[in-house]
Amino acid sequence: MGALSIRNVRKSYGETHILKGIDLEIDKGEFLILVGPSGCGKSTLLSMIAGLDSPTSGTIHIGDRDVTHELPKNRDIAMVFQSYALYPNMNVAENIAFGLEMRKVPKPEREKAVARVAKMLQIEHLLERKPGALSGGQRQRVAMGRALARDPLLFLFDEPLSNLDAKLRVEMRAEIKLLHQRTKTTTVYVTHDQVEAMTLGDRIAVMKDGVVLQFGSPDDIYARPATVFVAEFIGSPAMNMVQAQAGAHGVVAHGVTLPTSAAQKAAAKPGQKLIYGLRPEALNFADSGVAGEITMLEPTGPETYVSVKTAAGLLVVRSPGKVLYQVGDRVHLAWGTHDVHLFDAESQKRLAD
Amino acid sequence: MKNVHRLIIWSLLALFAAFFLLPFYVMLATSLKDMSEIRGGSLLSLPAGLNFAAWGKAWSTACTGTDCGGLQPYFWNSMTMIIPAVLISTTLGALNGYVLTKWRFKGSELFFSLMLFGVFMPLQVVLLPMSQVLGWIGLSDSVWGLVCVHVLMGLASTTLFFRNYYLGLPDELVKAAMLDGAGFFRIFWRIVLPLSTPILVVTVIWQFTNIWNDFLFGVVFSGADSKPITVGLNNLANTSSSVKEYNVDMAAAMIAALPTLFVYVVAGKYFVRGLTAGAVKG
Fold it and tell me: What is the structure's pLDDT at B280?
């Protein structure tokens, strides 16, 4: 029995289907990421878990309790909103204690909880301030404090870092991760940022158009993307995708035969239209292999992204450190067959593992 | 060159200010004169001294029709009418706005648009049906009947004010409070209302001014001893005696206008303060 299970949840507004049958299940203490582009239904799903919205059909269980039609306050959950939603008229301590106050926790215990949370998040010096007098990062901490104070069964995060600047985002991301390692509270976290998804999640559900395309560990998702969309969505720079076709002697793109594993060769039927995927870090400069010409260099410091125009198409290579080549140089690219991701062009699904 | 511009702007502003303040000055000056001064001097001349005799007469002994008790009873009628009327219409408007933005239901937008008709509806339309209804519920010719009418007629505007204000209040605040375990009224009382100061002040000013200055409902729906001050003022000014006592009329008009002036001066300050302190966003 999982800590949270979502069974065949659908949501429709008339003919518009927002969620088309979602099934997810996670264990106690796990960190679930719902990731996808905007409009994929991830926030709607989170609202349903919170009880702020209700599914058209399907059920949601928290622990072994069916909470599908339960009021939010009876679900024993806490949520951190994108805008933090701190009560502007109350100071930080009152904000943190509000949930406990509503649950008729006696004052001394409330104060104890506030002190505990404030210490954990290092916001003790802010307790008397109003939210208006806090910086973005501090508000974020207070919002987490408000959620932590109640010690809920389930934590929900709705894109909590998207209002912060880049540097702070990385810091808070690490804090959320540390916090989760310490409290081990089951967490559902919605984001559209694939880096957040990869760094934070124990389990990631990649969603698109109201469907979960893939549900698995970050490693699964990265190493064995189930569809073309997942492959392109996760990882930066995005996976190189080459339009190809299965021939008699392997996979061919624009006259170039591309290396494939035996299993992939077996899975592809001759004549089948394919998409041949390669992560930028899988490509190496070599003395032989697919030939091409460098069209652009993008140094980032620790690594350089090199765009290479080949007969098969434009390939981006992620190369560590500085690259000695220059634009216009002719190079050869090589890669191992275990780094190849092969997808059927029509169904967009992964072929052979 | 810059100074010349300044001078022009300032003198224009002063001119307009004087223009708008002139009637007020005439009222005030006339109310402080006695009849011989009024007959002898010009409209704009200063009174000889601070002579409040006309004010006293307007307040307690001037004749309004056959009664000669001054404006005093009308003033208290208006007070007993306006306090509940403003409180109730503002409270209901706030609740309506809260429901229409944070607890939307099927058809709530339609409900709101229908309610908007009330803002544009000419008041005369409701006179006959309203008097019929007041008669049925036994509130005709009473202060409470007037309260009832003003609450009903004010509801559309107060709802509109609060609804539009609450649209700007993030929904997530209400959701967060729901998750924290607060219910409908608790969220309203603890979260929404404390954030409503600016719109509360606007609504109270609006309702107070409208109800205090209302003449039509006052003259139609009030009984002999529930007439509001506007009706009293009208009666006082129209009661014919041998001489027209301009000073008393002016003093009476000033008395009738004072409460709204007071509300503007006092609440206007809070209004500005509320606007600057109400930085909810962020």
Answer: 45
Q: Is the peptide bond before A237 cis (omega within 30 degrees of 0)?
A: yes
Q: Do A221 and A234 touch, CB atoms closer than 8 A?
A: yes
Instruction: Report d(CA B223, CA B77) in Å as an integer.
Output: 11
CATH 2.40.50.140 domain position(s) in chain A: 238-344
What architecture is the A238-344 domain classified under in CATH?
A: Beta Barrel (2.40)
Predicted structure pTM score: 0.83
- B253 is written with which tokens? 């008009």
Fold annotation for A4-232? Rossmann fold (3.40.50)
* Token duo for residue A87: 């009560």
Rg (CA), chain B: 23
Provide the CATH number for the domain formed by B72-277 in this structure. 1.10.3720.10
A82–chain B Cβ distance below 8 A for any pair: yes
List where CATH 3.40.50.300 sits in chain A. 4-232
For the cut 80, the answer to whether the pLDDT of residue A309 exceeds it is: yes
A contact residues 39-68, partner B, Cβ 8 Å cutoff: 50-52
Mean per-residue pLDDT over chain A, rounded: 91
B175–chain A nearest CA distance, Å: 7
Give residue-wise pLDDT tens across range B118-161. Answer: 888 888 888 999 999 999 999 888 899 999 999 999 999 999 99
ipTM computed for the complex: 0.84
